[in-house]
Design goal:
Elements (H helix, E strand, L loop, with lengths): L1 H12 L4 H20 L4 H22 L6 H8 L4 H10 L21 H19 L1 H15 L4 H22 L15
Helix pairs in contact: 2-3, 2-6, 6-7, 7-8
Length: about 190
């Protein structure tokens, strides 16, 4: 129990660096995915290389936001993108919210949402490595839905959709994402 308290205290201390922790994690995962996708051949590796390239560039922008020009930095740091500006203009800022299912303010949470997302991402990667990403996808969706207090029926539907997308990805590209270290050779 004391170890869990220390771990939680360490995560709370990371709250001020949450953008950098998450961006650094995505940068490392993107680099790994880009390098690993080179061994898959041209057809199967094109989509992973493109998406990981986008992740690398965007996470590098977040990591380097302090040295970027002010016009680009404002798009990254204050969360005001051209899409959110258009949405604010279309809806108007004075529209009251009628959604009562919104989660509590992020400042009220002991662990920041960025650190939580980073932990779930690492957990998904480890579980995918162990049992295969095809099987880890629905487990990840269910766990993330539970953490965010999403209704079980909605989480189950999202888990089924995630499994179907992962299965389709596996069929179309012929990538063996159903195998992990522990399930290699067990699952046909």
């Amino acid at each position: 129990m004391a170890l869990l308290r220390r771990f939680t205290a360490a995560l709370v201390a990371l709250k001020q660096f949450e953008e950098y922790v998450l961006a650094g994690l995505f940068f490392v995962v993107g680099c790994y995915a880009y390098i690993d996708a080179r061994s898959w051949g041209f057809a199967a590796g094109t989509w992973p290389r493109l998406t990981s390239g986008v992740v690398i560039v965007l996470s590098a922008l977040v990591l380097l936001q302090d040295v970027l020009p002010r016009s680009i930095r404002s798009l990254i740091s204050d969360g005001d993108t051209m899409f959110s500006r258009r949405q604010k203009e279309a809806v108007g800022d004075d529209t009251p919210s009628t959604d009562h299912d919104e989660p509590a303010d992020a400042d009220d949470e002991p662990i920041s949402p960025a650190v939580t997302t980073a932990l779930f991402t690492v957990g998904f990667a480890v579980l995918g490595y162990l049992v295969g990403f095809l099987w880890a996808t629905p487990a990840f969706v269910l766990a993330y839905g539970y953490w965010n207090r999403i209704d079980w029926s909605k989480s189950a539907v999202l888990a089924i959709v995630g499994f179907a997308i992962a299965y389709g990805f596996s069929l179309v590209l012929g990538v063996p994402i159903h195998e992990g270290v522990l399930t290699e050779g067990i699952v046909p």
